[in-house]
Write a structure and sequence with these properties.
- The chain contains 12 helices and 16 strands.
- By secondary structure, the chain is an alpha/beta fold.
- The chain has a domain of 208 residues: 3-Layer(aba) Sandwich (Leucine Aminopeptidase, subunit E, domain 1), CATH 3.40.220.10.
- It has a 6-stranded mixed sheet with strand order 2-8-7-4-6-5, with helices on both faces. A two-stranded parallel ribbon has the order 1-3. Strands 9-10 form a two-stranded antiparallel sheet.
- The longest helix has 19 residues.
- It starts with 5 loop residues before the first strand and ends with a helix.
- The C terminus is likely disordered.
- Bound molecules: ligand AR6.
- Ligand AR6 binds next to strand 4, helix 3 and helix 11.
- The site of ligand AR6 has 28 residues, from strand 4, helix 3 and helix 11.
Amino acid sequence: MEYTCLPLSEIPTVSLLYKLKRLNQAAFPVATPSQTFNDIISHIRHDITNLQVDCIVNAANKSLLGGSGVDGAIHRAAGPDLVRECRGLDGCETGDAKITAAYRLPCKRIIHTVGPIYQIEVSRGIRRPESLLRSCYRRSLELAVENGMKSIAFAAISTGVYGYPSRGAAEAAIDEVRKFLDEPNNVGKLERIIFCTFERKDERAYEETIPQFFPPTQLDHESLVQSTNGESSPSPELLAATLPDPPTMDPVPDYEPQPKHKKMKINSGDSPQVIGDKKIEDDWEEVGHSEDEPIETLDDEPVEVDNAPSAADVRSVQSSSILDMDDSHSSENLLQKDW
Ligand code: AR6
């Protein structure tokens, strides 16, 4: 699938999405409507590396040295200088974020945040994945403001290789952003906050969740014109407003699909962190190359990036007998499944 570079002005706000009936009112909204917020928040299904915004948020791992998924796409598009800068950052903790230059990307900066590996964190406490995921969004927003960024686009952190269910991830992300915007200290700090999804399952989760936290305002409804049969439709002016073409199929990931942590049997003891001599809490140690694994090449220059770290996580966990992969799930199915 071809993705074109998208300037900020062409990324639809939630307000425009309501007017074009691309978003529907929620049956039970949990927040009050705000025109200001609906003009700040955006949702688009696109390749995040092509967004011309101030900063984009990468779903990184603790090494910050690259990986698969959106992390791989960002490193490839940014070029080898990115991993060089990342080497000096000393990694990043889960739930935290660090910022770098964007090199060859059309945005100005990249914020790298490390989302929770869902099954591992949930085994440590039912609320841990959510609180760590919220922290990713909060820290990224804070970093953006500290660095004078006015627009920020988030990938759907943890919803790929790290296995966070799409709907729960969307709720935590959107609610945390709403809380940030509601805080008096943050008024006027960010002009645009974009949720950038890639797969249909995540797009659907955002379409269902945004209306709960950012309900339509009167103005969002007003651009609809009433037809003789009583149905409302977008006014001609609105119809003239162009939206980027939505993809017609799920993008084909540019990396080998990795099995997710499907049926993870974590030891029921209090300290699942240490399995044999392996620490499963820390994917830092799992991301390095083995001697015989190839070094990924970014453009023409050979640069070391860590090799599908989450696959390494899975392998290390599997070899520790705490992962029971369900054979009925091919890796292709796993990629599409929302669990
Ligand atoms: N643009 C926007 N979103 C994308 C793109 C893209 N080009 N490519 C994938 N996504 P993932 P995680 C979406 O797996 O779950 C890496 O190896 C994807 O559909 O990239 O946080 C890191 O190094 C999904 O919704 O990140 C870590 O080891 C979302 O990005 C690990 O994966 C996140 O999927 C992080 O796992």
